[in-house]
Amino acid sequence: MQAPAAAERNKGPILAVLREYAGPGALRVLEVGAGAGLHAAHFARALPQIRWQPSDIDPRALRSIAAYVETMRLPNMLPPILLDVSQGWETWGGTQPATLDLLVSINMMHITELRCTEGLFKGAGVLLKPGGVLFTYG
């Protein structure tokens, strides 16, 4: 399991904002570019009503996320899926239109090509429920 220093530093402030969108009911979240998985594990533990689906394009990140899933044993944190955000939403692990309450992307847009940011916004437009939120940080 990887634990980047920046993720350790910003997990609390990000969680505080996510809580504003995560009322008491069950929510479905897709995290695009989950990286090492530290955020996914932290948020899933703190928000048990959320079904958290982490994803990444990097096989090393997917292994780290899988280690968090196995170690933390959080029933609401799903095994990671391979996701290339620059590809159409149809390739995003079977996520269907208007089924997500939150689409989360942390520290991705500033380190990827423009086509990834464009893909993120296009996917959000299709996959988020009415009133759903695209949450970005970094």
TrEMBL record:
Q: Which InterPro entries match?
A: DUF938, SAM-dependent_MTases_sf
State the Pfam families in the record: DUF938
Cross-referenced Gene3D superfamilies, in alphabetical order?
Vaccinia Virus protein VP39
Q: Which residues cross the membrane?
A: none
**From the record, what ranges are coiled-coil?**
none
Q: Identify its protein family.
A: Belongs to the UPF0585 family.
Name of the protein described by the UniProt record:
Methyltransferase-like 26
Source organism per entry reads Smutsornis africanus
